Amino acid sequence: MRPASRNCLRPAAACLLGLALALPAGRTAWADSRPPLPAMGPSLRKTVAFSTAEKTGTIIIRKQEKALYLVTGKGEALRYQISVGRDGFGWTGTVQVGAKTEWPAWHPPRDMRARQPELPDMVPSGPYNPLGARALYLLRDGHDTLYRIHGTNDPSGVGFDGTSGCFRLTNTDVIDLFRRVPVGTKVVVQ
Known about the structure:
By secondary structure, this protein is α/β, with parallel strands linked by helices.
């Protein structure tokens, strides 16, 4: 006599097999109902000569250049092209990376939802989230600034003044930065 659990699996397996046979090769029912996955975007990163008194591992954001620099050594940095805050949403100062998240959920801040009431309370994590593939949460004196260094599912949206104060990279570049930067990293926004 076979165990009951094995008998219960047979109808489910038959159903899945029937579904697979009914669909065109390489297609699944749930894949047809979702938009295609967003592109990760190109890497806009390059190694450049960079003079600074900041130590290796520091992030320096130069808003006017729309560039994020990760200091890699004496006289050198990785330069990432970014989007910055649009008029009225720019800020400067020194903060630190307080947390890092892969495929973060997005909770639009209360002020943003007041300006744009159509925004949801939360967008779940995943490839369709506006924060993209990774997020680095910026803290000042241990308090969340509500600003992030994050990716985007729209790589054509990088290189502009268009955010609400966050710094946006292509998903390809934010994944690279995420791997290089530990929690506690100093971030200087100029």
